[in-house]
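Researcher: I'd like a structural prediction for the single chain below. Treat it as a standalone chain; there are no partners to consider.
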Amino acid sequence: MSERPRATDDVPEELVPATVSELVRLLAANSAGARRPVFPVGGRTALGFGFGVDPASLELTTSRLDRVIDYPAGDMTVTVEAGCRVSELQNQLKPEGQRLPVDVPLAHRATLGGAIASDAAGPRRFGLGTLRDYVIGIGCVTVEGRSFKAGGRVVKNVAGYDLCKLMVGSGGTLAVVTEVTLKLKPLPEASAIGFACFDRGETVRDLLGDLATSRARPVAIELLGPKASRQLAAESRQDLPCGPLLLGIGLEGSLDEVQWQVEVIDREMHQGGAGGVAWVRDSQAAKVWSALTDYQVGVEAPVTIRAALRPSRTVEFVVAAIDAGVAVQAHAGNGVVHGHLPDDTLDAKAAESVIEPLRELAADGGGQVIVERCDAGWVDQLAMWGPPRDDWSLMEAVKRELDPGCLLSPGRGVDGALGHAVRAGEAGS
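Model: Treating it as a single chain, here is the predicted structure.
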């Protein structure tokens, strides 16, 4: 490990800018002088994702960039600096009866910039979408200290290359997000989540197919294994059913809308084989939404994986993961599965023996499995992003365009994945 360079007068050991102008100056000074790698951080809720941090990196903290710049509530948009905590933004929107309808795990810590960089989303992504659907304007600074903006404060502004969507999920490897303009939605008047247990994956798969043509419009379709079900009940302090497979259907809207949809979904779940449906509503439902959102992070698990699949293959994958001892939560309507490996996974070899069969199963259906979090010492031993994909070369080209000197989070993103693939190939040859 290389020795960490000492701070200079122009470049301090840690960058904590209070304004965008100060951020521009600090990054420009580093680019023209010491050229230290720069690692942006927000609420530190997603630091476990990706490859290791260069030990020589300057840490760039956005916590002081936390102002709400403009909130024309009548337009249902808001412009806010990237260091604002997600929960704080929601608190400021609530008096106007509005919200950012994206589930961000650990929202009391997570910043908007970090949520955008990690493309954070949760159970309501099925009916309400993800941050890609709500970011309409963005301001960023390159690692060389050049600021730029894309999009605007008008919802219909779609001219030009969509840099807004490019920055969502970029992992802090392309540019530092400094501000974002978001479109908003009204707060729902009522909320309900119905849970039912099933013994067989085939029954759930058939029911999910029927729900696709339901007259009701769920905002969430969640499928959990027994370990995740018990954890959800404990965290939300609700008396929930527990069985081999727990299916949850989330509804939101006006009082009349939700009541009508509850009746429709309840009837359809019974017709689909549910012995009984337990409904959690309003303030109690809020606890369940929060627990569902935070559970996917798995901060105490030795390894957390995420699969992206065709929704039609989700149940098959969930059953296989449960059989492998993995604690599973699936956003079944979207084909996104989060899995936490058991606590007795003692080393990277044991983890890989669990992950690899699931990775092959996902690939067989056109999907993929990545490692979201793991012990820091296991990063170089696990196939974090899986086998190389055709789109990696395009991602690398974008990285070179925006960060030609590879100073911003070097090795954390696609460059790290490519390097890991090369090393793995050399080791296997």
